[in-house]
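Quick one before lunch.
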Amino acid sequence: MSQRQDLLNAYEDLTPILLDEIRRLGRELEGLRVLHVNSTAKGGGVAEMLAWLIPALEEAGIQAEWHVLEGSDSFFHMTKKLHNALQGRNHPPSEEEWNAYFNQLADEARLIPRDAHIIIFHDPQTLGLAHFLPKENQAWAWRLHIDTTTADEETLQRVLTLIPPMDMLILTLPAYGIPFKPTRKPIRYIQPAIDAYSRKNRPLLEGEAEKILGRYGLTPGYALQVSRFDPWKGFDQVIEAWRMVRQRIPLQLVLVGSAADDDPEGQEVLEEVKRLVKDDPDVTIITEHDDLLVNVLQRHACCVYQLSQREGFGLTVTEAMWKEKPVIGGPAEGIRAQIKHGQTGFIARNPGEAAAYTLELFHDPALRERIGRAAHEHVRQQYLLPRLVRDHLLLYKELLTRREEARAQTV
Ligand code: UDP
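Model of the uridine-5'-diphosphate complex:
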């Protein structure tokens, strides 16, 4: 978790109007207790954001708490299947797996702190918890971070049966809301954000880059992808695109990845990536998990790939854009939401297109600079920490109002 003080005040120069709004909302919501529940403390975008969102909310004046499920191997195996099925893979969890999911959540429910006014349940891993908790005048919202545009129908129907206890659904993009319309629950859309001053995104200090690049024998100007080793992230597409490029220019490829605590597929995908790379000396695979390492590598790339086939949002895209890097993204919904093709990056529909954009960027430093600057400005306006804090405070305010209205109706 972030230990920094003054998370919000640091943005005085970058987003002053948002800070005023946050302070006003913070005063209105003073004394509010909000609990966020998810299933991993490390690895992946949700943990990345909660690590600063919780202290930033505290700084805004409310009491925020983060609870991580304990989980178990079989539970995470099931929830990864559930996650994949909601993202469009045709392998729904079995009845037995659903039973194991509920058994685990029944145990976990006993550990959930009870004194919050609002609980935000993150992702499918935590959704079923609601069935084992007394609601006691709380407001509950389910925050789903993934792309559900092609969800497996059987799994979706099952998930819809778990939504009734929720007061609201929070999704990333309007396209993800369509399958949830039948629930008739209010849906709000909130896009993620990054902390510009974290170890992963802050400006580098003298000597930091040399040390890390030297450790891996890297020279600036490589192509890069940073992602969990996950089947949706398009590592195979990256390697194919890079092979096409490599026939024309001497470009190195760096692949950085690690597995989140709740992600059992990581090792399998890493083995597949190694098989595709075939010990090519121009490809460096890094499995060390270190925010400063990601920072250094993103800042010294020639271009950054994120050729995901599905991506709820893709913080790796935002992070690289903030560092003024041209990102070549896959056609996934979350990536298309961030990149304006040809202006703040490129969208490649296949490895051939990704290779063509790589060559264009490699040969044209002015293009790299123009796209990089536009990308940075776009992130400054849309995707920095204060905007997400403000959106959360507005959300809590609305949840409280709805709770009061519901209470008034029952009296
Ligand atoms: N990440 C990292 N090291 C890795 C792989 C990923 O620090 O080896 C971070 C990455 O920088 C980003 C987050 O994990 O902050 C991934 O979030 P994203 O939204 O891109 O994808 P998710 O993993 O949530 O699907």
